[in-house]
Design a protein that fits this description.
The chain is about 30% helix and about 30% strand. By secondary structure, it is α/β, with parallel strands linked by helices. The chain has a single domain, classed as Rossmann fold, CATH 3.40.50. The chain has a 7-stranded mixed beta sheet with strand order 3-6-7-10-9-11-12, sandwiched between helices. It has a 3-stranded antiparallel beta sheet with strand order 1-2-8, with no helix packed on it. It has a two-stranded antiparallel ribbon with strand order 4-5. Strand 1 and strand 2 form a beta hairpin. It is globular and about 65 Å long. The termini are far apart.
Length: about 240
Amino acid sequence: MRTHTIIPVILGSHAVSVQAFECTASAFSGLLPSNATVNFAAAVPAGGSFNHPSPEFPTNDTGLPALCAVSINVISSPESTFNFGLFLPERWNNRYMASGNGGFGGGINWNDMESNVLNGFAAVSTDTGHLSEVFNASWALNKPESIIDWGYRAMHESVVMGKQITEAYYNCQIQYSYYSGCSTGGRQGLKEVQMFPEDFDGVLAGAPAWWTSHLQTWSLEASKKSRPSVSLYEEQSF
């Protein structure tokens, strides 16, 4: 492993650091515990794009700063695994930002990570243990370990492992760690505060879809109560 001296330089609002090792899968493999493996590690040039879509986040990332994109697979139980991704920018502000998910969907939120890395953050997100669209919860049927991953485990373990990787990559401690998410992402943020308050210095939990077992049944009840007594089709029929 080739190492370098870390030389922080102030450039605008970003601290620029020389990375401790190259952006390669083999370099990251040595940082991981026995239950984790590297899916890929790829350098993205300044102005480049990154395309790793999922049903939940199908959009390509474009106009990126120079960075290292990394994806890690973690075995979370004998019956389940999850993945998480990191964007590690060349110009790093010494801060770490995690992004949440939406609905029942599964996929690494590379799109929110794009926004974060454009502002100098080392960015992380998890697929919560599955790939699906926002309203598809079929992955949870008879899979309690997958539900645990979606509920909190994948986020927490991704955040902790992502921090370790980030600090090793820059050979520098993270100054501040933050979280931002909405809906299910908001719930993930509140769950982090409830169970793992040491994970973040600040949490932005927007419109949290909290208490899922009650929320879904109330959504059905509210829809029934707000349904017109006569449908538009029946009203316009002859």
